[in-house]
Amino acid sequence: MSRRIVVGISGASGAIYGLRLLAALGDLGWERHVVVSRAGRRTILEETGATIEDVRALSTRLYPPEDIGAAIASGSFVTAGMIVAPCSIRSAAEIATGVTAGLLTRAADVNLKDRRRVVLMVRETPLHTGHLRMLTTLSEIGAIIAPPVPAFYAMPRGLDDIVDHSVGRVLDLFGIENSLAHRWRDEPGTSDLIGAKTHDQSERNQSTHGDCGL
Ligand SMILES: Cc1cc2nc3c(=O)[nH]c(=O)nc-3n(C[C@H](O)[C@H](O)[C@H](O)COP(=O)(O)O)c2cc1C
Fold it and tell me: EC (predicted)?
């Protein structure tokens, strides 16, 4: 598999997921081709204080959202796929219909048409029936809908643990080995995927959950 991936950051709440994802992919040695929508640029600033230059520093290459002639606008640019983190309802709707108005949604469209993995961390709540129908369409055309929903069995100690878990589970969807996600009752020594942090969390779960069957 190509160790090159496209990452989109759209204007849904949860900009931190995109930033953390880029940092993790960089640590793991992946080439990161990144596009941030106009609204995404704003939410990154409002929610984290980071600027587009901070995003550029986390990227192998950062493309302007209007540049529909960029490499990632073509399926001929071979990648492992694309992650949109977070994914707004607006961007999801564009991808679902194929009416792509900018580079972020165009890149998702070409990855889907070339049958590559596309994971959308859709964040909105509550969802009306139109949203749900649109998300169903996305699933039918091959996208994976992976909302950033906290896993409380992981006994997160704070925001970093919550974000890391969701980012780790998205990396799992690409088969990218990581120790960010908590592995439920995965004991030390049973998997190469488990890091020290996971062992630590596992111990906490043993004492907290007992035999509650989770
Ligand atoms: C602070 C802030 C938080 C937002 N949160 C969400 C959200 O969680 N989900 C969503 O779909 N839109 C959210 N929006 C609205 C989107 O940014 C807006 O629909 C925008 O047009 C999306 O454009 P994009 O898909 O090109 O990024 C938020 C906007 C702001 C300013």
Answer: 2.5.1.129
